[in-house]
Amino acid sequence: MAIVEVNKLTKLYKGNVGIKNVSFDVNEGETFGFIGPNGAGKSTTIRTLFNFIYPTSGSAKIFGKDIVTESKEIRKHIGYLPSEVHYYENMKVEELLSYSMKFYKVNNTKRMIELAERLDLDLKRKIEDLSFGNRKKVGIVQALIHEPKLLIMDEPTGGLDPLMQNEFYEILAEEKAKGTTIFFSSHILSEVQQTCDRVAIIKDGEIVAVETIENLIKNSVKTVTLTLKEPENISLEIEGVLKEEVHGQRLSVLYQGNMKHLLNELNRVDFDDILIEEPSLEDVFLHYYEKDGGLES
Ligand SMILES: Nc1ncnc2c1ncn2[C@@H]1O[C@H](COP(=O)(O)OP(=O)(O)OP(=O)(O)O)[C@@H](O)[C@H]1O
């Protein structure tokens, strides 16, 4: 069953495209990633779903209810983390979270303390004294506190250090195990690969693809940088090399394919150092459909 149904949603800002004809469904119990570079339209989509801004055309339903006319009812069952969290600066963290609990008519103090401990968030601190990352943590606890059926999070891990990111992924996994439907945006490919069942890729306001993570991994691209003595004399002779560039002592290769094949090929190369990284999202999009199994339109 689809919990979120988005149908040709379009938002124009005074003629500028925010999003155009965005359509996708998020199924019950699914963890769904929404990925795209800065300015792609992730926040616009999420803010429209939450009825902070009105769609220019198209429609969407959450829990089978219309996002515009039945927003109030929908919001009761959503945990929402905006991309930037604005709070009452003078409040202490625990005051703010207690206020939230009152709003949702729940008393989950134990859950608040537990989540704060896991995220290393000091409940006694004043909001105005918190860093961007700590504000994000407040937002995460706030989104989770009333045990919503659906979580909608806009770039939840921005500002969190890697340790906290992992804790956050664990919390998400526990929510998923409970049956919570999760929808979150990100511009980090590895993050959605690690946590999601499916992902929608958005670029310039339009959905480029909706993919299972399995397909995404099959088509994934890596940047491999080798440091060696004479990089201009080396060429990797395997299928899947999309681009090779030499910068000084470094040979940079964009590779799409089986990593074992690549490692076998590298065995014959006499390199001093190697770095295997995730490419930029631009490179991912540029080369995404060069192999089979691509677009599901
Ligand atoms: N209030 C606004 N007025 C005018 N244009 C806007 C407004 N908000 C967003 N836009 C434009 O809409 C497009 C989509 O922006 P949006 O913020 O949704 O992208 P995003 O994917 O969330 O990016 P980011 O990760 O940078 O937040 C961009 O071109 C942006 O400039």
UniProtKB/TrEMBL annotation:
Q: Which residues form the ABC transporter domain?
A: 4-229
Spell out the InterPro entries in the cross-references. Answer: AAA+_ATPase, ABC_transporter-like_ATP-bd, ABC_transporter-like_CS, ABC_transporter_ATP-binding, P-loop_NTPase
Which Pfam families has this protein been placed in? Answer: ABC_tran (PF00005)
Keyword list, A-Z: ATP-binding, Nucleotide-binding, Transport
The answer to whether UniProt assigns keyword ATP-binding to this entry is: yes
Which GO terms of the molecular function aspect are on file?
A: ATP binding; ATP hydrolysis activity
Q: Which family does it belong to?
A: Belongs to the ABC transporter superfamily.
UniProt protein name: ABC-2 type transport system ATP-binding protein
